[in-house]
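Marked as duplicate of an earlier ticket. Keeping the data here for the record.
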Amino acid sequence: MIYDLMPFSVADFPGTVAATVFISGCNFRCPYCHNSSLIKPVEGITAEGDILGYLDTRTGLIDGVCITGGEPTLWPGLEDLIIKIKSKGCKVKLDTNGARPSVVRKLLDAGLLDYIAMDIKAPLKKYGLFVNDGADIARVEETAGIIMDCGLSYEFRTTVHEKILGADDFKDIGVWLSGAERYALQGYKYSDGVLDKELCGTSPCDIKYLEKIKDEVTPYFDEVLVRS
């Protein structure tokens, strides 16, 4: 369900001045998750009407909406919300963990998305560290293939934490997603909402480690970005 709205962002939707909508509920258990309060579906503090009304007041100022979570594709109301947002003349970016390929394909086939970002948690052989249902691993692989063939601008992205993924893991990701348009490395940052504080700690990912990983994966992708 809809949880909240961040009214303005220039970072969430590449090349677009956007608002960001948060959907609660997630089926993964990522130790570094900084939105862990949204893992369980919770009553929102922002209603659909608030979002649509806000967009009406920002015509010409807000160009797009990023829908993130939690995991938005778990919410039955996602398609309807996107249709309403598109009716306001806004582009839509979807953030997803890839566990619901049928939803992603349906939205793409309906022409409802303008940009899609998929979180790549690990090479497939290590996804067991992040999922609650092992069947989601095959679904993640399927979604990645759908996105690479979708014809839209897209990115894959991975949160980088030295305790969780090593250089060889990123090479495996590179081989898996070889030829993808864009891959973003996001350095771990501590926040009060981190799911597993004991494992992840409070220190941010070392920029030198990020640059090392970038060098490892650059041959596999058209573009590699570092977000520290």
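See parent ticket for discussion. The chain is about 30% helix and 20% strand.
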